[in-house]
Amino acid sequence: MLYNKAMADSPKRRGDKRERTRARLIAATLALIREAGFAAASLEAIARRAGVTRGSIYSNFAGRDALMLAAVGTQGMQLERDFSAPMPLKAQLRGFAERLLDQLPAGASGGELVIGYALYAMTQPQQRAAVAATYRAMFAQIAVQLEAQYDDRLAITPHALALAVQSLAMGVVWQFILSPGDVRRADVIAAFEALAAGAERNPSR
User: Fold this and answer.
1) What confidence tens digit (pLDDT) does each residue in 1-55 have?
2) Domain limits at 50?
3) Which parts of 9-88 fold into alpha helices (H)?
4) Is residue 80 included in any domain, yes or no?
5) Is residue 81 part of a domain?
6) Do 170 and 104 share a domain, yes or no?
7) CB-CB contact of 99 with 79 (8 Å)
8) What is the DSSP letter of 38?
9) Cβ 118 vs Cβ 131: under 8 Å
10) CATH number at residue 26
11) Is residue 83 in a domain?
12) Do 166 and 138 contact (CB within 8 A), yes or no?
């Protein structure tokens, strides 16, 4: 087949190449972290491991902080935090609890790296700010969804409920990593349903 430059430069092919480069950079970052720790994952080392130039990193990520956050984000749980479906709050949080429970094995398998990153980020002002910004955006999105459905029924602010949901979820994940036998499905669901009941002025409505 003759080389077709127009085909090669099409948006789809450019997009595919970009995704492959991003995947290589993420894989290289994770490999370096596992081999030598977070501090060893410099841009130069990542570029060498991925077989790309340092400029390629900046073409795909804002910098080392964004790349590292993206790499760690591929590990562990991929938990959907969508609260936009119309339903009673108790059912909403029960559904979230069930999704969380289904993801716990993945959370445990990648937990060491994710926890290690959290501890590392606490010592790095820029990394810590990047993590905080990610959570801030997540809380804002969840709060908007909760407010749209339950605002006139909530005993606390939508942001407070979003924070409570995330905090309970993180506690469940960490406890499962430490002592999985103590994290029983019925107990986790009951905890989220209790949160829903306490967050509403009139949960019977």
Assistant:
1) 333 333 334 445 556 888 999 999 999 999 999 998 998 899 999 999 999 999 9
2) 7-73
3) 11-36, 43-50, 54-60, 64-73
4) no
5) no
6) yes
7) yes
8) G
9) yes
10) 1.10.357.10
11) no
12) yes
